[in-house]
Amino acid sequence: MTIAEVNLLLGEFQLLLGHIVRHPKPETSGSQGPTCHGGVPPGVQINLLTTPPEEIAGNAALLQNLYSSLAVLTELAAPATVSSIYLTSAFLRDRMMSNVPAEVQAMARRLRHWAVATVTVVSFCFLIAIMLLLHVDRSRRDIVQLKRVSGEYQLVNTAIDQVHDPNLRADCLKSLPLSEVGDGRPDTGTWSLCDRLLTAQRQLEILRTELRRSNIASDRLSFLLPRRWLVPGEILPVGLSKAQWEASELRASAFTADLTGFVLPMLLGLLGAFTYVYRDIDRRVRTSTLQPGDGAHGTLRMLLGTILGGLLGVIWTNSQPIEFEGVALSLAALAFFVGYSVEVVFQIMEILVIKVVGQLQK
Description:
Layout: H1 3-22, H2 53-57, H3 60-77, H4 82-92, H5 102-163, H6 168-173, H7 188-221, H8 226-230, H9 242-246, H10 249-287, H11 294-315, E1 322-324, E2 327-329, H12 331-340, H13 342-361
Antiparallel strand pairs: 1-2
Helix pairs in contact: 1-3, 4-5, 5-7, 5-10, 7-10, 10-11, 10-12, 11-12
């Protein structure tokens, strides 16, 4: 064996030993094989690090000791390997990076660029998802409040009709004092009806304005919706002006359904897959088990999470919570969980496909 090859083996020896010292494995009562806890692992000839490479290359016994020591260290370092430790060190740019081969540094640089690009894109998607969730929640609250105030407005109008005064509604809307409307002292019940009518009307105007503002914002966001791609222009309902259509709760409900049924599940599926991928990357960094293909695998997983989240929104068109093992989950929460646990979803799909095929073959 040449001296260069011995130097390479000694470098791996030193690398594995340093990794084991930094990441010691706790001893267990039933464990078998070599362990390292508070000292040099048994079976490792530490004196080889101070032995000249020329002497090791010319001595078969020392070579055998070197190989056996490397085997023990490799077993102790598992699942980390020499290549994964080098790649993790280059990825983190730690003090061992100077000993990392040039091709491994190039791999780590590509993996680092992928991590930065992914974080940037997903952070942008996260902000979009938060803004959409807040926008959808505000639209829903406006619709609920509008229904409540409309009901109150109808009740007040019904009560005014029961008074049998044809001028009462007009006088209330003019905000005229009752002393100018009729003879005698003002009636307390009539004053109360007028106050309720005026209050309900003001609240309706405020809510209509808020709903119109929300619908205008939804219209600007509608470039994300497939319906905008299919319909070239907007057609107003017959008998409604543009201002009335913009303040319509039906329009707000349609926008809310589109956002919560398609766009948000896709974004939340992506965020769920991203959470899993970076949790796995964090685990690999801590255990020094990074691999060159982790970036490509992570990208594919996030793509699958996005697709499955979008399909979930398309398939599940009901707005009711989803019951799963006695736990009620909203569509948004389920889309996030689907993106996080892609393997579980595919396992369930395979089980369902096998059952369906079995029923068809009978």
